[in-house]
Amino acid sequence: MFSPTIDVLLIFALTTPLIGWLVERIRKVQLCGVYASIGLMISLWYIYELFGKVSSDGAQTFTSFFSSQLRIDLLGIFMATVFVLIGISASVYSLRYMERDTGIPLFYSLLLLMISGMVGTVFSGDFFTFFVFWEMMCISSYTLVAFRKQRWEPIEAAFKYLIMSSAGSATLLFGMSILYGICGTLNFQGLHIALSNVGSSVWLYVSAIFILIGLGVKSAIVPLHTWLPDAHSAAPSSISAMLSGVVVETGIYAICRVGFTVLSGIQSQWISVIAILSVLTMLVGNLTPLLQTDLKRLLAYSSIGHIGYMLAGIATGTALGLTGTLMHIFNHALMKGTAFLCAGVILYRLETRELKEMSGVGRRMPVTAITFIISLLALTGLPPLNGFVSEVTIVLATIEANMAWLGVAVIINSIISAAYYIRVIRTILQPVTQKKIEEVKEGPPIMLAVLCILSAMIIIFGIWPDALINFAKNAASVLLGG
Amino acid sequence: MTQIVDLAPWLCWILPTVGSVVHFVLPKKMSRARYAIVVLFSFAAWLMALLMIPSMPIQGYRDIGGFWFSLPSGGSVGLGLLIDSLSVIMANLVAFLSFLILLYSFKYMDGDTGEDRYWFFMSFFIGGMLMLILADNLIFFFVGWKIVGLCSYGLIGHYYDDNRKYWIGGPPPFPFQKPSRCGLKALLVTTLGDVALLGSVIIIYLYSGTFNFMELYQNAGTWLPEMAKTPGLLTITILLFLAGPFAKSAQFPFHEWLPEAMAGPTPVSALIHAATMVKAGVYLVARTLPIFYFAAWIASPNIPEALTFFITVAVVGGFTAFLAGTQAMVSLELKKALAYSTMSVIGYMMLSLGVAGMSPNAIVEGFTSGIFHLINHGIFKAALFLCAGVLIHASGSIYITDMKFSRRDMKFTWAFMWIASLSLVGVPPLSGFWSKDGILASCLESGQYLLFALAAITVCVTSFYVIRFMSIIFHSGSTKNEHPGGHSGEAPKLMLLPYGVLAILTVGIGLLGPWMKEALSNLFVEEFHSLNLLTVSSGVEHIESFGFGEAIPILLSIIMIVVGGYPAYLAYFSKKLNVENLLKKYTPLNLLHKFLWNRWYMDTFFNKVFVSSILASREPTAKYLERNMDLAINVGIPKLFSYINTNIRKLQTGIFSINMLYILMFLVILFLLILVRVII
Amino acid sequence: MIAPPHYLVFSFTLYMIGIYCLVTKRNMIRLLLGIEILINAANFNFISLASSIPGLIDPLALSIVTVSIGLAASVSAVAVIIIVYAYRHYGTLDVRMLKRLKG
Q1: How far apart are the first and last CA of chain C?
Q2: What domain range includes position C28?
Q3: Residue C53 sits in a domain of what CATH number?
Q4: ipTM of the predicted structure?
Q5: Is-above-0.80 flag for pTM?
Q6: Structural domain tally of chain C?
Q7: B645 interaction partners in chain A (CB closer than 8 Å)
Q8: What percent of chain A has pLDDT over 70?
Q9: Residue among A159, A202, A223 whose CB faces B663 most closely
């Protein structure tokens, strides 16, 4: 039907409630989580297989019903790897994290649906297939944000998220319709060929605006970002990790894909708009969390900042810039995922998100503290860790493209962001004074195992980024060349 | 066998460096045996140095190159060793003296609390010194130079907890100095010289494109005229360059650190301040001498500016010799007197090297005498310091007036110390005589009569102070050692052996004097030949042992010795003159005494100008300069950012309609943009 | 563009009405309807731009619209659920009362 990866994911997504109902009989609800994780691992293996095929044969095409196409090229494989990897971490993590909630089979099912939506988005070769999977991802994410419906906060956050994101999707659809009107087809390849000859007609500009708004809401570009801090703080931590780490990046991927294939006619114009937006995004994303007291809100704002860096990479328009953006997508997913998962462990033990109430918690939870510090330092962009490599690539690309002001902005924002990351590190490492923190124990081993694996990957990709750079470079050249 | 010989130069400096950490990794149970192993390493280094002698090329040099790293401009800095007669001779001297001194300190430092530190620094120092001697390029040389400086700081300040009994200076009412301050002073003054040296090395690199000594010699015809084109550049480079050796070898005006460096343990003073570190400056001058000689006499046209090198070296050397000698005449501390005498003798060496280049006739004689004097001085000064260590230990005091030793109780020490001191004075037939005579002869040959006079007067002064302190220590009339604070009796065998060997060596070299000198000068002549430094006009190719021209300096030096020695003999040995009464009676003499005692007021001058003024500016700087900067950065920036933050956070209202309003505004702005772009 | 301009103007106006509704209305259910209006604007645009030859409509557009309507329905379903819970927590359908999350 669809490609094997998505097939597997969908099958698992649909059968998880069944398994969940079964295991509820035997009162071991976690088994359905295990089932879901297994499903994710199988799909990762399929992606690897597809990678082999794609790198040797070129882009794969699958046709299915609806005469829409899946076109799996290297860029798609790259993004899908990121998604499924973080998905596995979130899923394994949730085995322990979600044990106090009800409706767990539904959770895993939604998680799988969200991941299949994202993977479908990056695998799609046609604008409308893209839209369908995009909506699949969005709708599952709305529900996941609102998962803990007993409290007011997720509901408020989810409502605003839903309305804004659906408005965005509708705008995206509107933009697609104008594109359809110009070209008569929605296939990415077809659009690219047709539109690169047209040059710059007014309608192309108009549709570009609508598409930019539509994708921008999801990828938290600045005036359209206001849903993000609320939604990412209110969601359960594994979902926050997913949202912050991968869902926003799907938006960036979409901007890359649409921008460089469809809108290549008006490339210089939309790139300058993206450049200004990236500076704005970086500033808002890094200046707002400086005095935040809520840990997850702080991390959510920092996601906005990093989206700004990714936009800066896109704004250069060169292969090096795009490589930097793709690398940063991977690295940010790792770093932010780890950070949110660590915050989740602290939340799991302490039931509070306020920084004041967690001062010194790192001394009682050493493993969590170490992985948290590693991910926060990587987010700052400290050299032997992976954040540095991608940020340096982006800065170099901006210098190469004669947009040195953008590179300087990236560096300054990196410095400003160090302020609040280090504030968090300081808070968790202070001497313990409160009684509640005295008694806190380390997190459960499964969660710690996930954290350790992720932070090991952060360090490895920081010291030896070669494999990642090559992968990203090939993916970028697919996008820019083809 | 050839592999070992090839490896010898490398092992020579690597072994002591490795040996410096060996005693840390050995188990604590072995206690003192660990330190014996460090001594063993230095012995191995000496063996390696000996192995280098047979392979010492009779003509020229051997440059064993190696690669270290390449500079951005394309050149590369090598880790290579230069084996020529100069470096082999110095390496042997240093390695031999280091081994003996380490042997001595095995017993001397027994029981000291910081012994681990001591052995580390000593061995590392020896490694650094050998590295410096054997290096083939200026950068590698500089690394060794700095290592030596660093280790001397650590060793001078060995008693850094400033225990009262280690303070030097006084006697009351004069001020005391704490060891930590002394170490710091040494480091600061030598670093000042090092910075200037580095500056001039960079300037030389800019013109010559290389750091390698051999390449500098060989290409001297290209880059020196380049440099000479800018008037004054060569002079400034030379002055900056010479600041390094002057600081390291405690010449005027950088000489103030050496007297205070006596705060360290005596083996440290022996090794660093008599035998090796202060010689490093002389070594550098000798190394680079051919370049400037070439510039002054061989290059066509001659570059007279290069003569500044020789003039500076000679004048500073001569002046320091005189300056230090006069200060030694009134010194009350034993080690301080020896320190002044070291400065004085090094002044002689510098003088010799300086006049070597002042005329084409004198180069071989001056160079040879300078290096010969360096060898001799290393031997007898080390012996003197080691004896001093024994004496200080035995009497429990650093002042010579407190030391009342009897000849009978300390027979060997008495004999060895007299031998070494007489060699210092230059009494024939001991070794010091031949080299000092050579220096005076070279002054005459190059026609520098003023410097010759200065050197001759200094001989007089030297003999005065030597006889003075030896008389006060050993001939103050007591028949047995009576010291309340120390212990009596001869020194232990392990400590006696090293300086005994050195004293005997002094005698030996003295007896072989002329032949040794001839052998040395042949070596250097060969080397200069290979560097094409000797032309037909410099006629002197070998030295005749005796001739009428050579008799003048010999006679003159003997006369000066007597002139200086006789008053000292009267005053201190036979006590026919009472010094105190003399001072009271003649006021000029009293003023002179005060002037000399206060070290020509130079120390006070430096302290006032450099130290007190900087300390006095601490308060206003903190108040006016730092406080404002501090406020601006540490209070201003956080306030700025929290202001920005508070206002940006107001953007994130919780109200949904405002959120959608942002989206609408964005849409409208973009549409306007299109309108402006496309329509207009 | 091939379609008569008034179709385009109409769908654009519909879009603006939808945005206006989202910005100004207070009732949560009206916001939901605003979203529906937006989606319908897009659908309408698809259909009106689907005919290059008068009388013949490109089946691609029709299929897109059909699927889009289905997606809109699922969005509405989820939205209504969230509105119900919001009413339970806040006691009102006024979206301006949902302002506890700020800064």
Answers
A1: 45
A2: 4-94
A3: 1.10.287.3510
A4: 0.94
A5: no
A6: 1
A7: 287-288, 290-291
A8: 96
A9: A223
